[in-house]
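note to self — DONT lose this again. spent like an hour looking for the file last time. sequence + predicted structure for the chain T wanted, 180 res
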Amino acid sequence: MDLDLEKALDEPVDLSQRFDVPAERLQRVELLSLAPVAFSGRLLRAEPGFVLDGTLEFDGTVACARCLNPVPFRRTGPVSWVFAPAHARHLPVPDADGETELQATDLDVVFYDDFTVPFDPLIDEQVQLEIPMRALCREDCRGLCPECGADRNAAPCTCAPPADNRWIALKALRPKDSET
């Protein structure tokens, strides 16, 4: 979807849209499914450009970080974008070493050359920020057995715990008459 900023030149514009964001497009391996993303908001003129404030709402399923079982999630929250014409961009001045330091305002503004701005990438970015990074199916999840791959939440694994071989090299240094 493209956002037509020109519609808000004279008066605020209310927006309501559903976005189909394929999970593959977000390239998050832990994301199993994502329902359509609902956006509602208001676009209004503000010097030197426009402001879009709204609410994003969606739900989905991610894999548990320990056992890979599905974990549902739901997100609802405010979003806001500031749009400014490209000619209003203040280019940061490099310092003596040629390094350019970005300010927070350099990242908070979407600059446009034309009154039509692609809106899908902005929605994708907000969804990326809201997907749980390391979800757990439950707080005491025991995860998968590293040996056989069995889900240790379902039943105890019969694999022997791995041997701790970190001290073997030091055993060679121990005197032979030592009992411990």
